[in-house]
Amino acid sequence: MKYIEFEALAWEMWDEIPDEYKEGVDGLVIRREALPHAALPDVYTLGECHTEPYPSEVGGPDTTRSVVVLYYGSFWRLSRLDDEFDWEAELWETITHELQHHLESLASEDALEEMDYAADENFKRLEGEPFDPFFYRSGEKQAPGVFRVENHFFIEVPVSAASEAPLSVEFSWQARPYRVPVPRDPGDICFVEVDGGVPDSAPGVINVVVIRRQGALAGLARWLSRRPAEVRQWTARAESVA
Known about the structure:
Blueprint lengths: L2 H14 L8 E7 L15 E7 L10 E8 H10 L5 H20 L4 H16 L13 E4 L2 E4 L2 E9 L7 E6 L2 E6 L7 E6 L10 E9 L3 H8 L6 E6 L2 E2 L2
Parallel strand pairs: 1-3, 6-10, 9-11
Antiparallel strand pairs: 2-3, 4-5, 5-6, 7-8, 8-12, 9-10
């Protein structure tokens, strides 16, 4: 898609969004350049929400102003990396995503920033880069011990550090029990990606996070903070538990 087409489509989408969702937003800025990630290759920022609060005892659209910025170059570069890149879908998602940043700024919420952090750390994990082993807890909590980061689901399964490493662990998915094998040496934290064995209707990638605990999970987090965690990654097929 050429820049002139991108610009016209962006403004068309912008005009479709009701004004109440843009209250406090001073406008849309479309830039030609790309904004690459400072450290991760082939990762680009598609858009940003630049927010500036003004001193006031009462927060709201009159005291919190934002500008939504789109980077055409980032869209173009990602389209060169993916033949199935959907310009319209990505553009709409980016605009609405940045508007959500603004709305959460009005409400003094930081949930979306935490989601961005979790997604960034998960990308590092998938690329073999160093990452925060508890990043997924900044994602969307689905249930106790179950978190979602984009299309990845993380299910925590704590095991005792005092006993020998288990050969498999059990987890629940959509109210059904499953078992998945784990490596003989799971380290402190082991991410087991479930490759098959659950219904094909599963809405994303299931990761069982096996944590060798010292007392409570909070205690393990404090313990791990004093030294690098031994993190393992594993792929295995699950089986239903009758």
